[in-house]
Amino acid sequence: MTIPDQSAPPLSRRYQELGFEFPIAALSREAAQRYRTRLETSMEAVGGRFKGIYTQKPHLLFKWLAELASEPAILDVVERVIGPDILLWSTEFFIKEPGDERFVPWHVDDTYWHIEPEIQTTVWIALSDVKLENGPLRYIPGSHRQSPLPVATQASPENMLISGQMAQGVDESVAVDVVLQAGEIAVHDSKTLHASGKNTGMDRRIGIAARYLSPQVRSLSSRESALLVRGTDRYGHFDPEPWPAADLDEAARKAHAIAAERRLVNMYGARHQDQPAMR
């Protein structure tokens, strides 16, 4: 694997050994609340729930989300994992209402990514307090160093992964619950097993996953695009994406439609047309 140029010390020995690190302070509670308000306003504008086109690369549709994923404190953490040049590859909403029966099954992120070298990291951003009753993210320590587990496909309305993938044979007895306060983040490797359960609490659980790559990374399938959020891209393996000028404006919608389609084709090929409706 190519080693990124590290201008800052690695994130931590814990990240290297366990495949994750949390909690990391990134935003003040006041800033997290401001982003939450903008998110909930956007949800209402699109019908009360992000689904369909809003489940893939929504940072290209919502200016506030591009701003959130580019917060200096978040990028400082990313830089310590992948180096000073950073591409924002994708964002996804993981929002569960109180009493929500939906869950995220055990999986690893890179099952359908088709990229190399894997100089990447995922940041999970909490915009609400995430307690045990809210269905927090859960990690299996050290799983990024182990052989991949077999994967079954079980798509359902409750499964929040559009691929329906479910890793088999996970030892949940060693799972770690990712309890976070609003404004804190967790960061994990693409090969780290993780999941989350139902929200049995009284508040909406709001999490956003932002996935970052070094520009050294290239797609092994079809060509994709990404948004440069720090440093420079000296490789050109990804087409540059435009920063949205305003939420849901016409130019943003056009750029997003192209980028999201390319992302789905890279992950699933022609099969993506047969995926269940994006949840």
From TrEMBL:
The keyword Oxidoreductase applies. GO terms for molecular function: 2-oxoglutarate-dependent dioxygenase activity; iron ion binding. The keyword Oxidoreductase applies. Keywords: Dioxygenase, Oxidoreductase. It comes from the Bacteria. InterPro entries: Phytyl_CoA_dOase-like. Transmembrane segments: none annotated. Gene3D superfamilies: q2cbj1_9rhob like domain (2.60.120.620). It holds the Pfam family PhyH. This is Phytanoyl-CoA dioxygenase family protein. It comes from Verticiella sediminum.
